[in-house]
Specification:
238 residues; alpha+beta; 3-stranded antiparallel sheet; 7 helices; disordered N terminus
Amino acid sequence: MLLVFAAFPASAQALFGSDAALRKILLLLGFGPFVLLLAGLAAWRLWPAPAPQEARTFNLGNERLRFAASYLRNGETLDPERIDLVVLAPDFSPAAADPQRLPSAGEAGEKGRAEIFIALTPAPKLEGRAAAAAPAERYGPYLAAEAQVAEGGLLRRRFEDKSPYAGEDLYLAPPDGEEFYARCQRQRIPDDGLPNTCLAEFRIESILAQIRFDPAWLGQWAVLRANAFLLVRGALQP
């Protein structure tokens, strides 16, 4: 600071009066950036926090559910008996912040593979034998006899080519798929460029949750199941 002052023209000293006054001005100029930094930090601390994310409440059958807007796949619900959500695997964090373009589950690229699409509807009422039948029994007439052990300890069974599910495989948590099951598209030959997906279903209270995801997540089926239950049960309202 003294060097700067010593190099100052004499005319500047005359302008500011005395040496002491000039030193004070130079000192203030040196602290200027620090003062501006403090003012910026104070403004940042006092800036209003962003408004909490909008949430919407839905009625599905006898249940009321509330979801943040970032979970909703469509801005407006077209079907009053259905809620469409989109989350990221495997933790089910919200993924619909920009609903204008959402790739299909399984679309090439890391983002597409991570997206899981969820459709919530009232669970249909099952009576008699249908209510007690495990997935392995319900799909049994359409399945080939052989079974293979697949990722995550799941059993993989092939649908017959003449069945309504031709071109798909059924994955079951042993022994009968009661805990988890999913129908997955088989790899196409030749590849048509469309993404392969799996469809799993869970009954959560009186809600049917249909979950469409990339086959890459089959090995983490227990995590997907647990997070689906947490998401839906956490949205239930009294």
